[in-house]
Design a protein that fits this description.
heterodimer; A: 89 residues; mainly beta; Folate-binding fold; 1 helix; 9% helix; globular; B: 998 residues; alpha+beta; Ubiquitin-like (UB roll); FAD/NAD(P)-binding domain; 5 domains; 7-stranded mixed β-sheet; 6-stranded mixed β-sheet; 50 strands
């Protein structure tokens, strides 16, 4: 079980969190005309990298904040965690 | 009955306490402190089971966790448990056990015919044989294999025992209480670290219990006892026996299984049978020791062939002899301790040593005691079927390829030692790599991946002096990093016998003209010939050889067989062992009870049960409850002999005719607050929200980004910047997460906060033509006229002294209101409504009537908004704004979502107006059509329409709008029903929606 450092609460076990997928996905702006392909990429297409991955986790059984976690998908090493508003990289 | 193999003077058992037990129906005696294995051996019982594949007789091989053979079915306190190792099961009074894998009995086993047919059961036998003919799988092969497989029978009864989970944190977690575990625990604990020391066995001390050493002029056992006593007295130390750390998971989380009551006749009240500990450790010390590995020879699976270390443990711990005419067959010095122990107990062993000569301290001692030692000698084959009776021995050439003349000598046990294999399972599970250590012919942990260190013989260190020194140092060093303290301990003085080098020899060649089975894996019956065959057939990777032959795949995970298997593959392939590599170690280290994994989360305890504040009233008034997510909701209120159908019909009719009240507390409620709340709702919902006035409610639908409907509900503007959102009961938690996602990550610039208020409000829906009259009585000071409180209106009001909110909203399609009060006042509100409602023929109604009312009105709910439908499919077109953007809108432009014959919500009535249509039925044109019969749609919800007094269903139907008036068939193969139906409008009652506005 992963040990995730919530930037608001501190180290907490994985079972307090819900996984939220790729944190680098950016929702297209409202009212902006975009192609079918761009929209499909946003809704459906995700990379599944082996290695470093910036992902979202929701501290559902804690402070209810969405946080960003930089994690190695093969070793599960967590390099750093960030508040939702923090810019990463 | 006399225990013929029990020694008088020696052992750690309590001879004051005699215990009786039964094995295969026969009664025996043992002592407190025995294992089932030691007690059986003391009674001369060596045949305990039959092997997995060939049903060859099985005895005891080890004395602990590594045991591959002695697996029994255990009976304890009216329960039965399969796959119990007799070497680990402690004896208790009244214990009962039976052999597994044999029928009709262990002494006469029909399956043993496999032993004579073994030419037909080679490696990969199942893959090869049972492939053809295909149809045989279902009724011949599979039942046969199922019956033959497994180690015992799982009980079909509910497990009455209690299992618990526990979470724990510590600075140092130490796995194993042998010399390295004790030393590191002591050093760390004395330096202020919080330590958990776990020992798998009942007794602490590991090898110190049986080895002939002295530490600070005490025996190994005395020193261990003193350390443990001191550790137990320290507040920063937790010491657990019967506790095995079986899994090393991510981020230094380890799981330990504590067998709290397995050694007792029954668990004490409020005490679990087993407890699973989830331990997060800052540092882990793996002091799991090592396991002796066998030398492979002919018929080496015969009962009576045991590990030399096990024979020693049976003598020194249990005072039990594995035999009275022992052969000790070894390639190293450690087995001489076993020989010497025999000699001390007046038994004369013969030692066969594969080495040409050795003159170490311990061998000198053996010689001086007069023990018969034959160097350059090996056991060629054991003789005897159910027990060793003699063995063929021979001199062996220096290159170990050729045997000399074969001689048969009488014996009743063969104690074998092929040197020691470090137990690296935990280190490997942590993700670290292993390396091959030439000096010991075995793998040891390489660089640690997580915060863990392996010490002592688990790390390939076999001298006590070095083990204690490194362990004291490491315990101090690791604790210092955590506690910043500097209290180091003096390393004790050790005296032990120096050992000479072991011999790499591991497998005795077959004599000319003999074809003995030489087993590698004793539990899965994998012999040398099976591995040879697999390699001849082209299997190269050790992972493939493992799966093809099942080497190391049994419940013991190859603890005694892995390395010999690797040796064999490396010999045949002409590679060195490290080039062959080893298979992956995976948790659990030993089998774990399913009960322990599940813990207390069984039945109703597997999830919380939520109850509304009015629950007790419902209970008292004959409510029959239904699970709605984690909530308990009244399904109907039973009167007299009514069943579900009669009661719900009565309740629904009363709503249409008079007035009903329904507990709607379970609806999800979310407070949305902030200056940008209106803008936020406008983005979340498909319809327009910017112009909703204060004091008004609006129905809204929200989508996922892929255009699928996520949830629906009404949201009310309580004040300028304050909205009260409702969600469906089931989606409440998901909707909150969804809103938080957009507020925190997508539109952080919006000044809005959301919080769940589901539990803050109790809700009652009052519905029916008389609801306004009732409401006026409930709120005499409030204007609830159609003008004062119009449809979709909201007002805050005084309810007999408590604050209430009245929403004029309707799910039933009748004139209806929802009254909310703070949860603590919920029951007060409910009882008042019931009391005053009497004058209006009010009846409470449950979820079944609620469903009936919404279905015949054509209002969609979870069964239509099922995660597969878009707003157009469910008649919600009018709620989709053309003007503004919202979550999921772009997806609605998809071509498939705009096909002309897209599925639509319709109503369905059976032509006979009698037959209810099962939910989930498929709608087809031709009930006798060729399969696969094209499915045009499905029935999403069914009810008995109280308005029309006939069955009515909702369906999602392809090109539904144009199908109205047509006739189709509803087919339910599950219920074996085919019903001719007519497609009608989904608005079966009050299609113009006049009632809600009346």
């Amino acid at each position: 079980m992963l040990y995730i450092k919530c930037p608001h609460c501190g180290l907490r076990s994985q079972n307090e969190f819900a996984y939220g997928g790729d944190a680098s996905v950016k929702r297209p702006e409202l009212n902006k005309e975009i192609s079918d392909q761009e929209w499909d990429e946003f809704v459906y297409l995700r990379k599944s990298p082996r290695g470093k991955h910036l992902e979202l986790w929701h501290h559902v059984s804690g402070c209810r904040q969405w946080i960003k976690v930089l994690r190695d998908t093969s070793t599960h090493e967590i390099f750093n965690t960030y508040k939702s508003e923090e810019k990463v990289g | 009955m006399v225990q013929n193999f029990r020694l008088d003077q020696i052992g750690l058992i309590n001879r004051e306490k005699k215990l009786s037990f039964k094995f295969n129906g026969k009664k025996y005696f043992g002592y407190e402190g025995d294992t089932l294995a030691s007690a059986l051996i003391a009674n001369g019982v060596h045949l305990v089971g039959r092997s997995f594949k060939y049903h060859r007789p099985r005895g005891f091989f080890g004395a602990g966790v590594d045991e591959p053979y002695a697996i029994v079915q255990l009976y304890r306190n009216g329960e039965t448990e399969p796959n119990v190792r007799a070497t680990e099961q402690e004896l208790f009074d009244g214990l009962e056990a039976k052999s597994v894998n044999c029928w009709p009995s262990v002494n006469f086993d029909i399956g043993a015919i496999n032993n004579f047919l073994n030419i037909f059961l080679p490696a990969g036998f199942y893959y090869k044989t049972f492939m053809w003919p295909r149809s045989f799988w279902y009724w011949i092969y599979e039942p046969f294999i199922r019956k033959a497989a497994g180690f015992g029978v799982a009980s079909k009864e509910h497990d009455r025992e209690r299992y618990e989970h526990k979470y724990e944190f510590c600075d140092l977690l130490i796995a194993g209480s042998g010399p390295s575990g004790l030393a590191s625990a002591y050093a760390a604990a004395k330096n202020g670290a919080r330590v958990i020391l776990a020992e798998d066995k009942p007794r602490f001390g590991g090898s110190l219990l049986t080895s002939d050493v002295s530490i600070n002029n005490q025996s190994g056992k005395e020193w261990a006892d003193n350390i443990i006593t001191e550790l137990k007295g320290m507040t920063n130390v937790t010491v657990k026996n019967r506790a095995q750390i079986f899994g090393y998971y991510d981020h230094n989380m380890l799981v330990m299984s504590e067998r709290v009551s397995d050694h007792l006749p029954k668990s004490e009240e409020f005490t679990p049978k087993q407890r699973l500990w989830y331990i997060r450790a800052k540092q882990v010390v793996i002091s799991s020791g090592s396991i002796e590995r066998p030398i492979v020879f002919g018929n080496n699976d015969t009962p009576g062939v045991v590990l030399a270390s096990a024979a020693k443990e049976y003598m020194k711990v249990y005072g039990v002899l594995v035999g009275k005419k022992p052969i000790v067959f070894t390639n190293n010095d450690s087995a001489y301790e076993t020989a010497i122990e025999f000699k001390k107990n007046n038994i004369n062993p013969i030692v066969l040593d594969s080495r040409q000569d050795s003159n170490s301290e311990i061998i000198k001692e053996a010689k001086s005691l007069g023990i018969n030692i034959k160097f350059s000698h090996v056991v060629v084959a054991a003789k005897g079927y159910k027990k060793v009776k003699s063995c063929d021995i021979s001199e062996i050439s220096e290159d170990k390829q050729n045997l000399n003349q074969i001689k048969n000598i009488e014996c009743d046990c063969i104690c074998v030692s092929g040197f020691w294999t470090p137990t690296i399972h935990l280190a490997s599970q942590s993700g670290g790599k292993t390396k091959f250590k030439e000096e010991i012919d075995a793998f040891v942990p390489d660089k640690s991946k997580q915060k863990e260190v392996t010490l002592g013989s688990a790390n390939g260190i076999f001298t006590l002096e070095e083990t204690l020194k490194t362990s004291f140092d490491k315990g101090f060093e690791l604790s210092k990093e955590i506690t910043n303290k500097n209290n180091s301990q003096q390393i004790p003085k050790v005296s032990e016998k120096k050992h000479s080098k072991h011999d790499r020899f591991w497998c005795v060649p077959l004599p000319k003209g003999k074809n003995y089975k030489r087993f590698l894996d004793f539990q899965n019956d994998v012999a040398v010939s099976d591995i040879e065959l697999a390699i001849r057939e082209g299997y190269r990777s050790i992972e493939h050889v493992k799966r093809y032959t099942t080497l190391g795949m049994a419940t013991d995970q190859g603890k005694t067989s892995n390395l010999n298997g690797l040796q064999l593959v490396s010999n045949i392939e002409n590679k060195v062992v490290p080039a062959v590599g080893h298979t992956t170690f995976r948790p659990p280290y030993t089998p774990i009870s399913i009960g322990a994994i599940v813990g207390r989360e069984i039945g109703k305890h597997s999830k919380p049960t939520r109850k509304s504040p009015m629950h007790n009233w419902h209970e008292k008034n004959n409510a029959v409850f239904v699970d709605a997510g984690v909530w308990l909701r009244p399904r109907y209120y039973k009167r007299g002999n009514e069943g579900l159908f009669e009661a719900s019909k009565r309740e629904a009719e009363n709503v249409r005719k008079n007035v009903g009240v329904c507990d709607v507390t379970t609806l999800g409620k979310i407070d949305v607050k902030g200056p940008d709340a209106a803008e936020f709702l406008n983005r979340v919902y498909t319809n327009a929200w910017l112009k909703l006035p204060v004091g008004k409610a609006r129905y809204g639908v929200m989508l996922r980004e892929d255009g699928i409907v996520m949830d629906d509900g009404t949201t009310t503007r309580i004040s300028e910047n304050h909205y009260h959102m409702t969600t469906t009961t089931a989606q409440a938690a998901n909707v909150l997460s969804h809103l938080e996602y957009y507020l925190q990550l997508v539109w952080p610039e919006l000044d809005v906060n959301v919080v769940s208020t589901t539990e803050q409000w109790a809700g009652a829906a009052i519905a029916g033509p008389k609801s306004r009259d009732l409401l006026q009585k409930l709120f005499p000071d409030t204007d609830v006229s159609n003008e004062g409180l119009p449809f979709m209106g909201f007002v805050e009001a005084n309810f007999f002294g408590v604050n209430a909110r009245i929403f004029r909203i309707s799910f039933s399609g009748e004139l209806a209101y929802e009254v909310n009060v703070e949860s603590d006042n919920g029951n007060f509100m409910w009882e008042k409504i019931i009391e005053i409602g009497k004058d209006f023929d009010l009846q409470p109604y449950g979820t079944e009537a609620l469903s009936t009312l919404r279905i015949e009105m054509g209002h969609v709910a979870g069964s239509e908004l099922d995660g597969r439908t878009i707003p157009y499919d469910t008649g919600l077109d009018g709620l989709v704004s053309k003007k503004k953007d919202f979550i999921g809108k772009r997806s609605l432009l998809k071509k498939a979502y705009n096909e002309k014959d897209r599925q639509r919500l319709v109503g369905v009535v059976p032509l006979d107006k009698k037959t209810s249509i099962p939910e989930g039925s498929h709608l087809v044109k031709d009930p006798k059509g060729k399969l696969p019969n094209p499915k045009l749609g499905h029935i999403s919800a069914s009810c008995w329409s109280v308005e029309h007094n006939n069955p009515f269903s909702l369906a999602i139907l392809k090109d539904g709008k144009n199908m109205i008036g047509s006739k189709l068939y509803a087919m339910s193969p599950l219920k074996n029903k085919t019903i001719e139906v007519e497609i009608v409008s989904s608005h079966y009652v009050d299609p113009k929606g006049e009632r809600v506005r009346s």
